[in-house]
């Protein structure tokens, strides 16, 4: 099996301009990933499948990851004018001081693909792609035209995370119903208070159903009293 470094080099030689970054995995599995730029990702996928040395002919798994906005705190050294007494005279001098600065790095959504070669008997090779943000630029190229096994799995990632896979032949919800709003696997997803039709009798759900119905009955009672 080729190393990720060798695969990265092969991609860059075969697909001019392709951006490939190795994301190390420090766990015992050491399954390092290759982060692809979205512009060249589809061409890279076809190369990985068709190259006789790599022959990554099987897509076993597609999943999504939601990365929230992150506050970054860093120490920086800056030069400032500060008052200082020099030879008995108060004057302004340059002095290097350390400041703490904060900024927010926007979050993004990530699609992760696990590839194997049935022909060469190795894998997985892990690919990742990232959207520009979590709001209005959530498109990624679909790999389903390259590996048909991605069809349902990309639909699932679209349904639960909201990643829009451009080029997918049939991108629509697969677990939630068509009129459902939002994406339930996002970290900031808020469950709707709509438990009146929930048929599940698990204790936790049943309790929420009771609380929901009590609230509705109270509201209706208030409305009736007002009328």
TrEMBL record:
SUPFAM superfamilies in alphabetical order: Nqo5-like (SSF143243)
E.C. numbers: 7.1.1.-
Database matches in Pfam families: Complex1_30kDa (PF00329)
Keywords noted in UniProt: Cell membrane, Membrane, NAD, Quinone, Translocase, Transport, Ubiquinone
Subcellular location(s) of the protein: Cell membrane
GO CC terms, sorted: plasma membrane
Topology relative to the membrane: Peripheral membrane protein
GO molecular function: NADH dehydrogenase (quinone) (non-electrogenic) activity; NADH dehydrogenase (ubiquinone) activity; quinone binding
Sequence ranges assigned to domain NADH:ubiquinone oxidoreductase 30kDa subunit in this UniProt record: 37-190
Catalytic activity: a quinone + NADH + 5 H(+)(in) = a quinol + NAD(+) + 4 H(+)(out)
InterPro entries registered for this protein in UniProt: NADH_DH_suC, NADH_quin_OxRdtase_su_C/D-like, NADH_UbQ_OxRdtase_30kDa_su, NADH_UbQ_OxRdtase_CS
Function: NDH-1 shuttles electrons from NADH, via FMN and iron-sulfur (Fe-S) centers, to quinones in the respiratory chain. The immediate electron acceptor for the enzyme in this species is believed to be ubiquinone. Couples the redox reaction to proton translocation (for every two electrons transferred, four hydrogen ions are translocated across the cytoplasmic membrane), and thus conserves the redox energy in a proton gradient.
Complex formation: NDH-1 is composed of 14 different subunits. Subunits NuoB, C, D, E, F, and G constitute the peripheral sector of the complex.
Similarity section: Belongs to the complex I 30 kDa subunit family.
Name assigned to this protein: NADH-quinone oxidoreductase subunit C
């Amino acid at each position: 099996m080729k190393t990720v470094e060798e695969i990265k080099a092969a991609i860059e030689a075969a697909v001019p301009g392709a951006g490939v970054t190795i994301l190390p995995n420090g766990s015992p599995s050491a399954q390092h990933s290759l982060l692809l730029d979205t512009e060249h990702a589809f061409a890279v996928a076809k190369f990985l499948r068709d190259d006789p040395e790599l022959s990554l002919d099987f897509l076993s798994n597609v999943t999504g990851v939601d990365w929230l906005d992150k506050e970054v705190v860093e120490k920086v050294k800056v030069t400032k004018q500060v008052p200082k007494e020099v030879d008995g005279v108060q004057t302004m001098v340059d002095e290097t001081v350390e400041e703490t600065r904060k900024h927010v790095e926007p979050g993004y959504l990530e699609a992760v693909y696990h590839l194997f070669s049935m022909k060469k008997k190795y894998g997985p090779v892990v690919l990742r792609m990232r959207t520009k943000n979590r709001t209005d630029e959530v498109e990624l190229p679909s790999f389903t035209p390259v590996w048909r096994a991605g069809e349902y799995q990309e639909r699932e990632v679209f349904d639960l995370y909201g990643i829009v896979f451009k080029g997918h032949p049939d991108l629509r919800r697969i677990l939630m119903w068509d009129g459902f709003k939002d994406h339930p696997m996002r970290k900031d997803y808020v469950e709707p208070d709509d438990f009146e039709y929930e048929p599940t009798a698990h204790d936790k759900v049943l309790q929420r159903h009771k609380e929901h119905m009590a609230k509705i009955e109270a509201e209706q009672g208030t409305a009736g009293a007002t009328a």
